[in-house]
Amino acid sequence: MAISNRMTSPPSCINAGVSVNYWLLAIYKVDAAGKTLKPVVEKELSRDEDAPMSISVHPTESALAFGINSATNKVEAGENENCRIFQYSEERIEAVHNKGTLASRNSDDYQKVTRFSKDGNVLATGGTDGVIALLNYPSLTPVMPVTQFKGHEILDIDFSADGAHIAAVSAMNLWIISTETGRVLEVITNPVLNKKKPFVFRTCRFGRGAFSNILYTVVNGDRNQKPFVCMWDATKWTRIRTLTVGPKPITTCTISPDGKLIAFSSSDMGLRICSSKSLQVLMTVPNVHTLPVTSLAFNNDASLLVSGSVDGTCRVVSVPKTFPKNNNFVMLILALLFLFLAGIVQVYQSNLIA
């Protein structure tokens, strides 16, 4: 799925471009072998309303959820229907349901996060005004009362594998919330051990498959500090591991459907695919975009990684089935063995000279 009104195909990957005149919802079929995107169907959005700011694809139905602000006069009147549901086929894309979830009447606030639960029965939204809403799908009736964390901008939300919890992050807080009661179960307010460093949360994802008991959080520093990823035990909410992934701030991440891979985009416009188990970098794709990536997703079999950027392009990168093994340990042993043999040779030569 791409928001686009034109398409080009650069040689290294698949690309769909965007015009700023108006917004289209456009569905493409991906031809990975030919590195092309074939247009299937498009829908032009109202020119009086805001651009789509977030998207989630239903896991089992042909449905899409978006964060799209209503016209400014409606937002200011408290009539913002920011949560939009569309159904799609190869013939049409049709709006079927709208719902207001934001508390703010400021048109600068918007639905930054849109996320379906793993079974598709619940939809979560998060706003720049600090509001988190959980809605039944498809009725969009509230699952629980709206939660607002005033003074915070919701940056990301994700559902646990069983749907019992959501994790949500702002720059300074990580919340674990019960989806049944809406009660906040855990709050982690300090992204790092050293509180003096200006680190902030950026995104969060629950693992899948064998790693469904792990929560991954991304924490960014300033320009002189590398970002890192924290792995949390999703039963005890204790930190398991903290590792750096790349030199530049991370903008978003996604996890493959089988849970084995986790991909990150960074402010250097590159992509990194890592092992979900160890966070070892398996593949790096530099300079995928000219501006930072805002959305990232694997396809069902994790053979493709799709990225969308504020540069107005959508790129599709092929992901190999296997990755080269990490030979760092072997190389270290060989290096030590070489130094040991070199030392023996030097001692032997010294004895001959003597």
From TrEMBL:
Subcellular location as annotated: Endoplasmic reticulum membrane
WD repeat copies, ranges: 286-316
Name used for this protein in its record: Prolactin regulatory element-binding protein
TM region positions: 329-348
One Gene Ontology term, aspect cellular component: endoplasmic reticulum membrane
InterPro entries: Sec12-like (IPR045260), WD40 (IPR011659), WD40/YVTN_repeat-like_dom_sf (IPR015943), WD40_repeat_dom_sf (IPR036322), WD40_rpt (IPR001680)
UniProt entry keywords in alphabetical sequence: Endoplasmic reticulum, ER-Golgi transport, Membrane, Protein transport, Repeat, Transmembrane, Transmembrane helix, Transport, WD repeat
Membrane topology field: Single-pass membrane protein
Record GO terms (molecular function): guanyl-nucleotide exchange factor activity
Alphabetized PANTHER family for the sequence: PROLACTIN REGULATORY ELEMENT BINDING PROTEIN, PROLACTIN REGULATORY ELEMENT-BINDING PROTEIN
Gene Ontology biological process: endoplasmic reticulum to Golgi vesicle-mediated transport; protein transport; regulation of COPII vesicle coating
